[in-house]
Structure formats: structure tokens, C-alpha cells
Amino acid sequence: MTILDKADPANPPSAQASSSVPGVRTGSWRVVGILVVGVLVCAVLSLMIGNVGISPTTSVRALFAPDNSQAAAIIQQLRLPRTALLIVVGLALGLSGALMQGQSRNPLADPGLLGISEGASLAVVLAIFWLHISSPVAYGWFALLGAGLTAWLVFSISALRGGPSPLTLVLTGAAVSALASAIITSIITSNVSTLDQYRFWVVGSAAGRGLDVFWQVLPFLALGVVLTVVCTPAINLLQLGDDAARALGVRPGLHKFLGICAVMLLTGGAVAACGPIGFLGLVAPHVARLVCGPDYRWVVPYSGLIGAIVLTLADILGRVIAGGAEVQVGIVMALVGGPVFVLLVRRARLVQL
Length: 353
Hints:
This protein starts with a helix and ends in a 5-residue tail after the last helix. The chain has a single domain (92-344), classed as Orthogonal Bundle (ABC transporter involved in vitamin B12 uptake, BtuC), CATH 1.10.3470.10. Helix 3 packs antiparallel against helix 5 (70-104), helix 6 crosses helix 7 and helix 6 packs parallel to helix 8 (166-188). By secondary structure, it is an all-alpha fold. It has 16 helices and no strands. It is a multi-pass membrane protein. Belongs to the binding-protein-dependent transport system permease family. FecCD subfamily. The chain crosses the membrane at residues 31-54, 83-100, 112-133, 139-160, 167-193, 213-237, 257-279, 299-317, 329-348.
């Protein structure tokens, strides 16, 4: 019997080999449990820390047995919706970044670099400008539509000659992102009312969002997570190339289509909830690979949990870094993610001219 006869998309030969070689990093459920605990700890810290400090016991009591105190009002009305959004948005961006990097075989792929976040932003700007949409809840549908159309456009253009390659994906994404950014700039510089609404949304923040926004985007994010679970087992085989993956029983076209749908839902929902937040989808998968190695069966869940932890910590840092003022989480991620991105490129030599 040949290796082709025994190939299992959920446990490909490369993953079997890496798990049996001493000294090779592999994932484990114990680390997943540690990351889940880390998410819970960050959630408690997010409930506690702010302009008004609240003790852990008071935070838990206000969460499960609220009363008429000021602490309970702050937890229930402000910090709980904010924390819930930070966790699900960080999870979504981490998952979408890992999925894009795995399916495109491009370590620089993320929703921001491939123009998907910018496409979602353009759809929101057009909704504000043409339809006079002013509710953050209503932004969700347009952000999802913009993310989906942009993802389809980028992958379609990059696949015109022999299928999407890492280079063509980045170049096409950069071109589409530049075009969307130019249209956004032309609109907001010529319309003051659109600029007034857009500037509060574009910085990327969970502040001021209520639970209505959370419930609005949750179904889309949940469906995106389900599609991610479906696509993940075959990503290891897609690393071998489409022809090799097809010979091992995988349908590359179907899995890439499902992956595009998952990225569209995850990115669109995240952008609709908190606005565009850069670098998280790029950095989280690289951190995950440092922990568990190249096996995407572990890289994908690790990336999602790491994304939730990093985004929550970035938001907490933004609350305390400027004293009484507050720095939005999108700005904090840009300040931290930019240098990390440069270090990743220089260290791993991911970009070569």
C-alpha cells in the first residue's frame, strides 16, 4: 500500500512525522487550556481596570448578582459589553489570519494586508455617505458585504494566471486596498458629516458598544468559526501545493472557497463590531507557530485564543497608558503591531526582492 492510499486529510503525513520527531514543537490540549484560562484572566482584568478601579470580588459579584451600586452599573452597562466584544473580535481576527496564511501559503497574509478590512471600511463609508446610516449596529451588514466582495475580488484577480500565489495575493491585496483607501479619502474629505461619523469608527475601538452590537455580529462570527473548523484539517495538505493536495484526496477549490467565506464572515463581523484593527491577524499566527510548530490543526485554535488575549490586553493598556485619557485599541495595536511586523519580516526573511 502506498502513502497515497493511507493519506488522511485530518492527519497528513507531514503532521504525523512532525509529531513523532523528538525536539519538534507540537500542539497540546494542555496549552489550549492554558490559553483559555488566559482569556478568562484577561476578561476579569478588563472588568476591573479603568478610570474607576473595581476589585475582583466586586467585579464578579456585579457580574452574577448585580445591585444598584455604581460598580454594578459600570460592569453591566460599559465593561461587560466591551469585554465580550474584545474577546470575540480578537478570536475572529486571529482565526482569519491563520486561515488566510495557511490556505494561501503566505506568511504575510492577513485581512488588513489583503485589503479585506479596507473593503469593509469602504462599504461602511458608502453606507454613511449615500444611505445616511448612523447606527453602529447597522454598519455590520455593510461591513460584511464589503469584506465578502473584496475577498472575492482579491482571490479572483490573483487566480487569473495559474491560481493564487503568495506574491500575487499580496500585490493584488495591496492594489485593492489602495483603491478602496483612495475612494474613502475622496469621500470623507468632501463631506464633513461623513467624516464626523467615520473618524470615530475607523480608529478601531470597543468603547461605547452595547450588547446589541455583540448579539448582532455573533451569528456571523459563529458561522465563520464553524467554517474554519471545517477547513482546518486540510490546511496541512494545502501547504504541499494544490496538485499534491488533490492527489491526497483534498479538493483545493472547495476548501479555499469555504476559507474565503470564513474569512469574510470573521473579518466582516469584527470590522462591523469594532472598526478596522490592524496587525492582529498577522501577528497571532506567528506567535502560535512559535509555540506549536507548523501543524495548522493547532496553529488555528492557538491563533484565535492568542488574538483574544492580545486584543483584550491592548485595550486594557490603552485605558491606563495615558493617565485619565484613553487610547483606542486600534491605535495601541498599530503602535505595537508595527514594530512586531518589522521584526518578523527581518527575522524570518519573509519578504525578498
